[in-house]
Every structure is written in structure tokens, then in C-alpha cells.
Write a structure and sequence with these properties.
- The complex is a heterodimer of chains A (about 425) and B (about 450).
- Chain A is of the alpha+beta class.
- Chain A has nine helices and 19 strands.
- In chain A, the strands form three sheets. In chain A, strands 1, 2, 3, 4, 5, 6, 7 and 8 form an eight-stranded mixed β-sheet that branches. In chain A, strands 9, 14, 15, 16, 17, 18 and 19 form a seven-stranded mixed β-sheet that branches. Chain A has a four-stranded antiparallel β-sheet with strand order 12-11-10-13, with no helix packed on it.
- In chain A, strand 1 and strand 2 form a beta hairpin.
- Chain B has about 450 residues and is of the alpha+beta class.
- In chain B, the strands form four sheets. In chain B, strands 1, 2, 3, 4, 5, 6 and 7 form a seven-stranded mixed β-sheet that branches. In chain B, strands 12-11-10-15-22-21 form a six-stranded mixed β-sheet. Chain B has a five-stranded mixed β-barrel with strand order 9-16-17-19-23.
- In chain B, a hairpin with a 4-residue loop joins strand 5 and strand 6.
- The termini of chain B are far apart.
- Strand 2 of chain A pairs parallel with strand 3 of chain B, so a sheet runs across the interface.
């Protein structure tokens, strides 16, 4: 059989302005160009990955050499034309330097007792996949991130806390609001005795969705569910979580930074949003072509892209909890809320473990009450489990977020 | 040669790499062969105040990038006298060790598949005889890199490195272990099937017989494999100067000249050795050599890049290492070893009334408190190795542990592996003999 050829290109430009000890110390540009070559002979696939400038003839030849091992893949390449460009603003090096200096000036002027570290970084990425079966996909995005770490000026032993914001169009007001949120009351330490009282009363705890949700993929792998090795095995159609909890994989979400809209096999979902848990009921799971064929289940774009190789994990690229429409103030009511500055899972793989347990050390948090930050909360450990956290302890994701929309905080209590 | 900008410091690093991965499983559910290659450069310009860098650029665009970055910088006529610039070493050398038939480019794919099939055949037979072993996957990773470094001060270096690593994932029910062998050439990895089978036997025996251990404080003997992980976590990472700078430990507990460990303890890092951490010149052009981190328990030296060496007023050590030409150098260990002592390993066990023998540690974390997650642990009773026991983790205060090392064996072993600091994996080697620690907490 004649070989089918597929070329996957990823072109990226990252410019980072670094801040060290309250001054700008450098500007770093990184422009990786990555090309993956795949050849398919009807039953097997061969693969070669090239960093930097690529020569197609040599790339496909090396991929063809790798057919020797016989890596089985019976599915023909995808086809079709799809394109998406989410970029809104592309800043020059000079503009980035100027914005970084402005942000630094703001925090240094308003919070002079701190030393600041961190960076402002802009990443523009274009992915392009094409093959001789008519596939022509491209996806472009340009996202900037500012991360400010801060520590009390005189104390060299103090560990830095940090906040960060992502944006497609820089918004200075948003930056200032976030800086004020995190810094204004940071120097007021909540005494341990007061903190213990708050903990005894059962405060609302916020967890960052971005840190927690990726670990849900392991429970939503359709293969593991069919094999009986997922905690959600045999649960499809059953309501096992709070009816306020709806989980989707949403590639159209504006917080889906630098993602593409196809999966690792080049498959494009008919709808960008896949509902996995609908008001507490498990309704679908992630599968790739092989799992869908093997178990005769719907194919749900579950191959997580791996640009550097053939092996991929199963899961969603952009898991989201649907906010229930109420603002944070309404969700919290009169209760105090603990918002983590730094969170660290107690286990090497962050998030939920395969048995559904979760243990998080909140080294540094802010106490938030009646719409404002009261002070810095001492370190404590929170433990929970999958079914408790999204079940009886689940409150919701607010329509607005203390600290800005990037926080995407999940409230449990 | 490049036209380096005047009144600025600049350097150029170019990497030309070729990498190959193969994987096979006994049931053929996994058969993979992938190759990666790349030729990229990093250009850096320094004006005395700020660094301007461009990574992952095409080597043919280096001159243009040098000119562009120089235009962003502010010329500084006194740059040569800047203390950081004065720190950078200037060497000229050509060290190409792997141009022979042992270069991985020259090994045909048939040979590589046959290499892995040999191990797979042995594993398959073993699994037929031992049905409790449910899964085996073998992986072969080969990488050859040519490194070039040039600087405006006159550095002109070309050197190459090569690594070959085979790893075997073995599963018994829900538990698994990874057996790894590493060497600079493939020849050094052949005919080690019996070692793999012995490790599989040990793992299976451990999984079938291990009992839970009562938590508490135990005298622990770390065999060479386990101690090598301790060396990596405690001495490798512990002596990377960025940690000292982050925690300000260098002011007190870890200031040079402090006796921080038992006098039996001597540790060195040496990037010149032809092991996985081979880095004869680091990514700032500093020449490697033996760096004695601890001599007779006394802290002598730390691992540095030029910036940290300048900040702490210490000597360069040749430990500025980047993962590749897409990333900037960080302070990274190379080949780190605790030097062999004079104690007989068997006698070390015989002297323990009630303790633990740690065969292997899968990973650990070290700061001022160290936590290690062991894979295979055996109880020592009345000076003899007894039943295997399950231990979640071993931990203790770093400085107390270093003082509590009371025996260092003669059975030195090297473990070629990888370090994933800040998600940037690079090859390193860790070496150690058996060591005995009085008082590690097991839970």
C-alpha cells in the first residue's frame, strides 16, 4: 500500500521579561519550531520528531524507517479543513518591557515594603497539521502571563508568595485590582488561635480549578471505566455528585489558553463542548478511536495530544466546571473563605489520587470575608475525597471570582 | 566565527542532537520506535545590567540574533571589567569522543530492536514461569549530542556526549517497579539479562512476602542503590547554590567550612567523568573537574553557575547546565558521588540489632527536611536480613541525618539516571557505597 504522510508543525514564540529583586533584569526570547512526521502503511504508523528547521524528505524517511517495529494503528488519517485564530494582541519586546516596568512601578510604589520577582511573558503559538488525505488544520493563539512573586523586603529568609494573571489583551486595571487583592492585607497575619477557631467553624475553602481538574481525567478514561479500574466504573447514568456539579470539556472556553480544537489523533468533535457530568450524573467519558472500537462506545476526542511521540494519555484538554450563575458573595453568604496563594498536593502527582483521596497543604492563603481580604492565613492541611468534594462539600464555582477571573476558584465547605 | 558585539558580553551555544526511543511489551500491545533530532542555538548578550537572550534559534541565524539582541542592549565600555564577565572562563578544545562505530547514529534499527527483543524473550519466559508477574515493558533510549560554545571573550569549544538507557517496567498486580541500566554506549548495556531477571525475582519476592512495618525510628542501612538516591537528593540538590540562595541557608547551617556531616562522609561532583552527567564544559563555558563538596564531613564547595558564584563570593564549579537549546542554564549537578569508606557492608548489617535495610528508593524530596519513598525494604533483626516490609516513607532533618551517618561501606556503585529539576530532565549519575544512618523515621 502507498504510504500516507502527515506533518504536524508547532511554531512558537515566547518573549519573557524577567523581574528580579524589584528590577527588570533581562528579556528572553524562545522560538521553538517543532515538526512531527507520521507515515501510515494501512496497518502501522512510523514517527519522527524534529526540533528546529526541518527537511520534509528526511523527516518522512526517518518516520518510514521507524515502521520497522510494526507499531499497529489501523485507523486512516483524518481529513478536512479547520482553522481558528484566538489571538487579539501581539506585543513587541519594547512594549512588553514597558508594561513590565509599569506593573513593577505600580506594586513598588503602593507596596514599598516588599521585594518583587517574577516575569511578564507572551507566547504566540501556531499549530498546523496537514496530510495527503486532505487534512489542513491550523490553530493560533497569543497569550500573555504576568507572575509577581513578593516577599517582605528585609527578611531574606522569607519565602515568596505569588499571583499571576493571563490575558489576551493587557488590562492594567485588572492587574492593579489583582495586585491590591493579594497585597493590601497580606502583611496582616491571622494569629494561629484565631485561625484555629475559623477552621473549627468550618470555613469555605477555595481550590484552584486549574490545579484540581486535570486529575479528574484518570476517572473519566472510558477504557479504565470499562475495565472496572476507575472509581466511576459502573456509575454511568447514576447521580454520584452534587446536582449543582456539571463538568464539561470545553475547547471554546476563553480560558483555554494555547489549545487546539482537535485531539491527538487529529479528530475534531462536532461540538466543542462535551458534557461529562451533568448535574451530578455521569453521562460520558473520554475515548480515542481504539477504545471506541474495542468497547463499541462513542468516540469523544479523548486522545491528549503528544507532539513528541506516538503514546498519548486519555483525557480532556480543557475541563471546566459550569458556574451556577450566582456571584461569589451569594455562594459564600456570611461564611469566611480561605483562598490559597500557594497550594501543594502532598503527593507527587497533584490532585486526586487513583483511590479518589485528596490531600493538599495550603502553605499560604488569604482569609476573605464580607467581600474583602482580612489577612494571611497560616499553613494547614486539607484532606477530602472525590465523592465528598464534589458531593456533600461542593458549593460551586462563582460567576465572579475574588482576585479576578483567572482564579477560577471552586468553593467547598 | 561570529562577529561579537563591542562593549557587550555575548556567547553562543549550539546543540546538534539525535535521539531514539524504542518500546516493546511482552504481549505486543506496545511496539514503538521514535526518533528525534534537532539543531538549535542559544544566543546571550549582557550589558552589565540586563541579559538579552534568544533560544531555539536556527544556527544559521545566530549572527542576525547577535546583532538584534545587541541593538536592544545598552553598550557598556567597561563590560570586560564587570565582575560577572570576569568570572567567565575562556577555553578552546575539541573533545569528540563518540565518532566511532559506537555512535548511536551508526547503529541500524534492526540491531536496536534485536537488543530489546533479547530482553523481551527472557522476560516472556520468566512470566510464563511466574504468572504473578503480569506485565513487562522494555524501553531503550539513546541520545547523542554535539555541543558547541563560543563567547566574545574567546571561548571556542566543541564536545559531544552520548547516553544509552534501557528500562524495564515490571508489574505484579497493582504494583510495579522499573529496572534501569545506563551507560554511554550500547555495548555496555548488552548481556545484562540475568541482572534484569534477578531484579524481577527480588521485586516479585518482595511483593508476595512484604508485611507492613510499625512506624517509628529505625537504624537504617541504605544499600548502594538507595544511598545513591540519597546522595542525589541531599548532596546533589542540597548543594546546588540556588537552593542556598532561596532559603538563605548559606548564612548559617551551610556556610563553607561548617562541619555538617559525620567525618566519614566525603562527597564530590565531577562533570569530567564519562558517565551520564558528563559535562566537560558547562553551558557558560566553565571547565568541569572534581569538586569536593564535603571532605571529612566539612562543607568545602557548592555547585554554581557564574551568577550564584559571584553572589556568594565562591569559585565556579561548572554546573550551569541547560536541558537543551530551548532552555537557559540552571545550576544542576553532574556526576555526584559519596566516596567509598572503609566499612565492610556485611559487618554494617551484622552490627544492627533491630533496623531496616533499604534496597532501593524510588524518589525523594530534600530541603532542610528530607523525605524518601523507598521501593524495597527489609527488616534487620539481630544482625541479619529478614522479612521484606512495606514502608511509606523515611524522613528526618537533613542536618541530623548527615551527622547520624556512622558507617560508610566499601561497596561503591554508580547509578546512571535522570534528574527532573523544575521539569527539565537532564542526565546525571549518582554514586554511593552502603551507608548506615542511626535514626530515620519510617512511616
Amino acid at each position: 500500500m502507498k504510504l500516507a504522510h502527515e506533518k504536524r508543525t508547532e511554531e512558537q514564540e515566547t518573549i519573557r521579561v524577567t523581574i528580579d529583586n524589584s528590577r527588570i533584569t533581562g528579556i528572553h526570547q524562545n522560538r521553538p519550531l517543532r515538526t512531527a512526521y507520521r507515515v501510515w502503511n494501512g496497518s502501522s504508523v512510523g514517527f519522527h520528531f524534529q526540533n528546529g528547521a526541518a527537511d520534509d524528505e528526511s523527516g518522512f524517511a526517518q518516520a518510514a524507517e521507524n515502521l520497522y517495529i510494526g507499531r499497529a494503528y489501523p485507523f486512516p488519517p483524518e481529513s478536512g479543513t479547520h482553522s481558528r485564530d484566538l489571538s487579539k494582541q501581539q506585543l513587541s519586546e519594547t512594549e512588553l518591557l514597558s508594561i513590565a516596568q509599569d506593573c513593577l512601578d505600580y506594586v513598588a510604589a503602593n507596596y514599598p515594603c516588599y521585594r518583587f520577582f517574577g516575569y511578564l511573558e507572551q507566547t504566540r503559538k501556531t499549530e498546523h497539521w496537514e496530510n495527503d488525505n486532505g487534512m489542513d488544520y491550523s490553530s493560533t493563539d497569543c497569550v500573555s502571563t504576568i507572575e509577581i512573586a513578593f516577599c517582605p523586603g528585609a527578611d531574606e529568609k522569607a519565602a515568596a508568595d505569588r499571583f499571576s494573571l493571563h490575558f489576551r489583551t493587557f488590562d492594567r486595571t485588572r492587574f492593579e485590582r489583582a495586585a491590591d487583592f493579594f497585597l493590601a492585607a497580606y502583611d496582616r497575619e491571622i494569629p494561629v488561635s484565631e485561625a484555629q477557631e475559623i477552621l473549627n467553624r468550618g470555613p469555605v475553602l477555595c481550590l484552584r480549578c486549574s490545579e484540581l481538574l486535570p486529575s479528574l481525567n484518570q476517572f473519566l478514561d472510558a477504557g479504565e471505566m470499562k475495565r472496572g479500574s476507575s472509581l466511576l466504573s459502573q456509575k454511568t447514568g447514576e447521580r454520584v455528585f452534587s446536582e449543582r456539579f456539571t463538568l464539561v470539556d470545553d475547547l471554546s472556553d476563553e480560558g483555554s489558553w494555547l489549545n487546539r480544537f482537535w485531539d491527538g489523533e487529529g479528530f475534531v468533535r462536532k461540538h466543542e463542548k462535551l458534557t461529562l457530568i451533568d448535574r451530578g450524573t455521569v453521562v460520558s467519558a473520554f475515548s480515542d478511536k481504539e477504545l471506541a472500537e474495542k468497547w463499541q462506545i462513542p468516540h469523544t476526542q479523548g486522545a491528549l495530544p503528544n507532539p513528541r511521540g506516538l503514546t498519548y494519555r486519555i483525557g480532556g484538554q480543557n475541563l471546566r466546571i459550569i458556574p451556577d450563575g450566582r456571584p461569589a458573595k451569594e455562594l459564600l453568604g456570611e461564611r469566611a473563605c480561605i483562598i490559597p496563594l500557594t497550594a501543594c498536593s502532598n503527593t507527587p502527582a497533584s490532585g486526586f489520587q487513583s483511590d479518589g483521596s485528596l490531600s493538599v497543604t495550603l502553605y499560604s492563603s488569604l482569609l476573605y470575608h464580607h467581600g474583602q481580604v482580612v489577612g494571611r492565613f497560616p499553613s494547614f492541611i486539607e484532606t477530602s475525597s472525590l465523592f465528598e468534594l464534589f458531593g456533600k462539600h461542593y458549593i460551586g464555582v462563582g460567576a465572579d471570582m475574588p482576585g479576578g477571573p483567572d482564579s477560577r476558584l471552586l468553593f467547598i465547605g | 566565527m561570529y562577529r561579537f558585539p563591542k562593549a557587550l558580553y555575548a556567547d553562543v551555544r549550539i546543540e546538534d542532537s539525535y535521539e531514539r526511543f524504542l518500546s516493546l511489551s511482552t504481549n505486543n500491545s506496545l511496539r514503538e520506535s521514535e526518533s528525534n533530532s534537532g539543531r538549535q542555538a542559544v544566543v546571550r548578550v549582557f550589558d552589565g545590567e540586563r541579559w538579552f537572550t534568544s533560544a531555539a534559534c536556527a544556527p544559521e541565524k545566530v549572527q542576525a540574533e547577535l546583532d538584534r539582541l545587541a541593538a536592544l542592549a545598552t553598550p557598556n565600555p567597561g563590560i570586560e571589567e564587570h565582575p560577572l564577565v570576569r568570572k567567565f572562563e575562556v577555553h578552546r578544545a575539541r573533545l569528540l569522543k563518540y565518532e566511532s562505530e559506537e555512535n548511536i547514529h551508526k547503529i541500524p534499527i534492526e540491531t536496536l530492536v534485536s537488543f530489546l527483543e533479547g530482553y523481551r524473550g527472557q522476560a516472556h519466559t520468566y512470566m510464563e514461569e511466574h504468572p504473578l508477574m503480569t506485565k513487562w515493558t522494555g524501553t531503550l533510549q539513546l541520545k547523542h549530542t554535539v555541543h558547541r560554545f563560543y563567547s566574545g571573550k574567546g571561548a571556542d569549544l566543541v564536545w559531544d556526549s552520548q547516553l544509552c538507557a534501557s528500562s524495564f517496567l515490571c508489574c505484579a498486580g497493582a504494583n510495579d517497579t522499573i529496572i534501569c541500566f545506563g551507560a554511554p554506549t550500547l555495548n555496555e548495556l548488552t548481556h545484562r539479562e540475568n541482572e534484569m531477571l534477578a531484579e524481577m525475582d527480588r521485586f516479585l519476592d518482595y511483593e508476595t512476602r512484604a508485611v507492613n512495618l510499625e512506624a517509628g525510628e529505625y537504624t537504617c542501612i541504605l544499600g548502594p542503590k538507595a544511598a545513591a538516591t540519597l546522595v542525589h537528593e541531599c548532596f546533589g540538590h542540597g548543594f546546588e547554590a540556588d537552593l542556598a540562595l532561596e532559603t538563605a541557608l548559606y548564612h548559617n547551617e551551610m556556610s563553607l567550612g561548617t562541619k555538617i556531616a559525620n567525618e566519614r562522609v566525603s562527597v564530590c561532583d565531577n562533570g569530567a567523568l564519562p558517565l551520564f552527567g558528563y559535562t566537560p564544559y558547562d553551558d557558560e563555558g566553565t571547565q568541569a573537574g572534581e569538586r569536593r563538596l564535603i571532605r571529612g564531613g566539612v562543607l568545602c564547595q557548592r555547585l554554581h553557575d557564574a551568577g550564584s558564584a559571584l553572589l556568594l563570593g565562591e569559585e565556579l564549579s561548572g554546573n550551569a547546565r541547560a536541558k537543551n537549546a530551548s532552555s537557559l542554564p540552571l545550576i544542576r549537578m553532574t556526576n555526584t558521588s559519596m566516596l567509598p569508606g572503609t566499612d565492610d557492608p556485611q559487618a554494617m548489617i551484622a552490627e544492627v540489632e533491630d533496623g531496616l535495610y533499604i534496597y532501593r528508593i524510588s524518589y525523594g524530596y530534600a530541603g532542610t527536611h528530607i523525605r524518601l519513598y523507598p521501593d524495597e525494604v527489609y527488616r534487620i533483626r539481630k544482625g541479619r536480613l529478614c522479612e521484606p516490609v512495606r514502608v511509606h516513607s523515611l524522613h528526618g532533618n537533613l542536618f541530623e541525618i548527615l551527622q547520624q551517618i556512622d558507617a560508610v561501606g566499601t561497596d561503591f556503585e554508580i547509578d546512571n539516571s535522570f534528574c527532573g529539576k523544575m521539569g527539565l530532565e537532564i542526565p546525571v549519575s549518582n554514586g554511593s557505597p552502603s551507608i548506615r544512618i542511626r535514626g530515620l523515621t519510617a512511616d
